[in-house]
Amino acid sequence: TTLFTSILLLGTNYPMGIIPLGSANGMATELFVNPSPIEAFKDIIISDIVEGLDILLINNEHYTLHVGDVGINASIVDSYEKDKNRGMATYAKYFLEELKNMKPFTVTVKTDEDTITTKVFMSAICNSRKYGTGVPLNVVGNPMDGKFEIVLNEEINLSSLLKAGLSSFDDKYYDNQSSRVLMTSKAELIYDEPRLLQLDGEVIGKFKTLKVELLEGAVNLITTGRNEYIKKASHK
Fold first, then answer.
1. Contact at 8 Å (CB) between 55 and 47?
2. C-alpha–C-alpha distance, residues 42 and 141, integer Å
3. Which H or E run contains 182?
4. Measuring CA to CA, which of 211, 222, 230, 236 is 20 to 30 A from 76?
């Protein structure tokens, strides 16, 4: 996977390229990789553009390139992973169960800029803007800018719940009134009790405290001029 390769390359000068061969190819899409595997491979061979890609380190042990969260989405992912069946029908079953049982929980977020305590249905740790299927969590994420976003989903309704999950029902909808977004390079999240964490679609375990550190430009990425993040990062 892209994340596993990135971890192996930490501390080296070897660049990596991305060939989209997964089911959703969310990170490839976020990084403006050509959706055709053959064309993406050609880009890796031909391109002379290499830029630093940020990685998030959590509790000095776990990594994420993309998005992690605690709350309703992590619970859906956990239930889905344990079910031998796959597909939208299975996902919808657990989605509806969480919809019936969801309750807000308390989280305190500490950054160098501020400390916030609030009740949320989900807290997300974002190195980019969207889940793998394109469902948006924020509009400012950039995995090449030396910052990451904490998204606090404080209010919930059907639209925002669809947006917060892995569903592709509403992949263009973004309502910034339903969540609070904090941009930082280091954060600590403290929950009212140990809660389930998922990173890049994998359930990691339950944690009461998450310490998140950004490793700026930790991996060299072979990319192309189509990558809009390069332009944005150069003007930060």
1. no
2. 27
3. strand 179-184
4. 211
